[in-house]
Sequence to fold (435 residues):
Amino acid sequence: MNFVKKSPWILHYDGSSCNGCDIEVLACLTPLYDVERFGIINTGNPKHADILLITGSVNEQNIPIVKQLYEQMPEPKVVVAVGICATSGGIFADCYNIVGGVDKVLPVDVYVPGCAARPESIIDGVVKALAVLEEKQKALSKKKSAVKK
Amino acid sequence: MLIIKILAIIILTPIVGGLLTGIDRVITARMQGRQGPPILQPFYDVFKLIQKEPIEVNLMHRFYVYLSLIFVILTAVILLVGGDILLAVFALTLGSVLFILGGYASNSPYSLVGSERELLQMMAYEPMVLLTGIGFYLADKSFFVSDIVKNDIPAIVYLPGMFLGFVFILTFKLRKSPFDFSMSHHGHQEIVQGITTEYSGKDLAVIEVTHWYEEIIAFTFIFLFFATKNPISILVGIIACFLVYFLEILIDNGFARMKWNFALKSAWIVTAVLGSLNLIILSYFK
Fold:
């Protein structure tokens, strides 16, 4: 059985967000939305996380940080870009220090547009990410059994 | 017969411990006005962690955690089979020390700080645990659990102060606020995840299972305060365990994390006043 769908642990990273999306991400943990219903926990630790939730666009200074966070997460892992800045750079796209969306640096699996992204759409995005996570888990176990043979 | 009993203890203890943790998470959520995860959530978490990729920091790092699990299982077996309570306390201490060594082995600053705080926590709670064992000896004239559960009068009649002191330090052992400064189950905190920061996959699952065993060991002590020859005392003991657990969850949700100075001072004062006083009075009258 696949348990990764039942207990996705999230690592939240603020790229160069205006904090609008960050507050919406935290709103998901409040009694109104309560994502812990789905076993979702907001861990502050990449080594425990399954889903990397990035808000805000990536800038020149945090490229190595974003990459390191991603590399420290154990497989299988997915990346969710929350908010329009994380998807494309948004209104900050033309700034001198902004590289663009998260997909310029990491392989993004799910995009959640919006300014700021609403908690409902963030939860929807995470649920979509769960399907990707399950696929990756299956691919990983196939790879493992192939190596054993 | 003994082998079947030991196997049953090894298998059933984490199942009960995991269920307790699940109930804890639901009750905590309800206290905060949330719905909370399903009761089986801790098991989902552990099975997921087993399926995940293990990241090895170094060889010793993992070795300590597995050794810690073995000693904690040994403690559970000693206690539940009816063995020596002092031996169980020492085996449990060894398990905790090995866990701390695991934290030191990783060279991560977060786990180093976590290990140091865990050592302080151990300094705070360990005297009370040892005194509890001695208290049982004074009350029942035996260190063996099998003798303690066979007495006529429950130990709590002789050891009320000891019981209160043990409930106080139970907060450390269950990793609940206000004394969860080395690592906690709650998301954000200042030292990431303390000792467990560098653990992932299977190793983290082992740490979680170790904690389930530790929970049951802690509640075995609570149970022993109420156990007598009378079979009704089993029910009384289990109800007492649940009440104490509920109290711990209430305290967990009602208090913020305290600094280590307060934790150490308060735990030692409680041990000195409630524990020692109880012991002195008991040694006069018994």
In short: Chain A has one domain: 9-148.
